[in-house]
């Protein structure tokens, strides 16, 4: 199987992003390149342009990258990075952080393409938790 | 596990009594297993029916240990799909 679509988790908190990555790994996304860009470079709560850019490069194994932001400036920082480095193969998705990342990771793990992975993340908003 | 098939190779279903809650890990395994088949597959519980490719929808069924879940498939590999997904459900822990 070819490399799957990559996923970047952008969060204000390094621990939140790392914790979500651990959760994704538990649920069977170990074949999916999941990278985190959490917090600032000096370990504070916030978002970092450079960390987001590095994470995108690390997650891209040739089949595109879906960026899942937590909220607020995670979206803005990711958008700024994409404006400076435009690529049709990198998509920022509007999705709930945990559910969106989970749906994206599982969909990527079965070899789906970039559009399908992004759609899975976005559709997560419409699936009731219970 | 009992497999019933009214038309071998076309439609197939089986029911599984869950040994554990249908939470994130088994739901993820179901999604991955379902992707290997071309048949249309549905997971049913308590009147709700979802596509196993959607891990969130499967978790949203709220099926707990002891509950009965039905796997239904239609297509040329329906029997294998039902057997494989039922095995995933049986192995839930």
Attribute tags:
heterodimer; A: 130 residues; alpha/beta; Rossmann fold; four-stranded parallel beta sheet; 5 helices; 4 strands; 45% helix; globular; B: 93 residues; alpha+beta; Histidine-containing Protein, Chain: A; five-stranded antiparallel beta sheet; 3 helices; 5 strands; 29% strand; cytoplasm (chain B); HPr family phosphocarrier protein (chain B); phosphotransferase system (chain B); HPr-like_sf (chain B)
Please identify which CATH superfamily of chain B we are dealing with. HPr-like
Major β-sheet strand ordering of chain A:
2-1-3-4
The helicity of chain A comes to 40-55%
Described by its quaternary structure, the protein is heterodimer
Distance between the termini of chain B: 18 Å
The total strand number of chain B stands at 5
Tally the helices of chain B: what do you get?
3
- At CATH level 3, the topology of chain B is Histidine-containing Protein, Chain: A
Low-pLDDT parts of chain B are none
User: What order do the helices and strands of chain A follow?
Assistant: EHEHEHEHH
What is the number of domains of chain A? 1
Radius of gyration of chain B: 12 Å
**What order do the strands of the largest sheet of chain B run in, or round the barrel if closed?**
1-2-5-3-4
- The proportion of residues forming helix of chain B, as a percent range, comes to 25-40%
| Shape descriptor of chain B | globular
Computed Rg of chain A: 13 Å
Pfam families (chain B): PTS-HPr
Main location (chain B): cytoplasm
Subcellular location (chain B): Cytoplasm
Keywords (chain B): Cytoplasm, Phosphotransferase system
């Amino acid at each position: 199987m070819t490399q799957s679509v990559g996923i970047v988790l952008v969060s204000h908190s390094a621990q939140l992003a790392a914790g979500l990555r651990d959760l994704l790994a538990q649920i069977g996304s170990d074949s999916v390149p999941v990278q985190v860009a959490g917090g600032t470079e000096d370990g504070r709560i916030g978002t970092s342009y450079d960390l987001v850019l590095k994470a995108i490069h690390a997650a891209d194994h040739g089949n595109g990258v879906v960026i899942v932001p937590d909220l607020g400036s995670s979206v803005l920082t990711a958008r700024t990075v994409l404006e400076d480095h435009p690529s049709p193969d990198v998509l920022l998705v509007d999705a709930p952080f945990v559910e969106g990342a989970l749906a994206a990771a599982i969909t990527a793990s079965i070899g789906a393409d970039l559009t399908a992975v992004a759609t899975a993340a976005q559709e997560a908003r419409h699936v009731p938790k219970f | 596990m009992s497999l019933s098939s009214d038309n071998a190779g076309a439609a197939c279903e089986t029911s599984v009594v869950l040994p554990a809650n249908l939470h994130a890990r088994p739901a993820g395994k179901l999604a991955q297993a379902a992707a290997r088949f071309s048949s249309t597959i549905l997971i049913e519980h308590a009147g709700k029916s979802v596509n196993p490719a959607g891990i969130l929808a499967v978790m949203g069924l709220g099926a707990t240990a002891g509950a009965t879940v039905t796997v239904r498939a239609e297509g040329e590999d329906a029997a294998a799909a039902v057997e494989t997904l039922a095995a995933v459900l049986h192995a839930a822990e």
